[in-house]
Amino acid sequence: QVELVESGGGPVQAGGSLRLSCASTSPSFYFDAMGWFRQAPGKERELVAAINWKSDLIRYSDSVKARFIVSRDNAKKQAYLEMSKIEPEDAAVYYCGEGTWDILITGTPDYWGRGTQVAVSA
């Protein structure tokens, strides 16, 4: 059974930085795309960033472009989200997802993590 485990969330001041990590047990991690999603209270889950298996195809939502960086380490089976210049609107539960690129960017990855909370104080 594939398991995704996020870590690195927590409280942060607006303007600060956080680094989220996602560890995968998937045997197909090397070939899968990885995505970071977030869901704030009362809002739908949205795709924040996605990266393909070779790290040569990357997509960001407009709201985080130029502030967040997604990356991965295939040898460690981990994906990362470097968050900088954090804004109050970034407060949410952040989830990582894994699957093929085409389904991941539609918001329906094969596997989901349980999420890590990011709380932003002004």
**Average residue-wise pLDDT:** 96
What is the subunit organization of this protein?
Answer: single chain
Structural class: mainly beta
Order of helices and strands: EEEEEEEEEHEE
For the biggest sheet, the summary is: 7 strands, mixed
| Contiguous uncertain segments of 5+ residues | none
Based on CA atoms alone, the radius of gyration comes out at 13 Å
Q: Give the DSSP E fraction (strand runs of 2 or more residues).
A: over 45%
Distance between the termini: 40 Å
Number of strands: 11
If helices are DSSP runs of H or I spanning 4 or more residues, what is the number of helices? Answer: 1
Can you give the helix content as a percent range?
A: under 10%
Shape summary? globular
Walk me through the structure:
This protein is mainly beta. 3% of the residues lie in helices and 48% in strands. It has 1 helix and 11 strands, in the order βββββββββαββ. The strands form 2 sheets. Strands 2, 4, 5, 6, 9, 10 and 11 form a 7-stranded mixed sheet that branches. The longest helix is centred in the last third of the chain and has 4 residues.
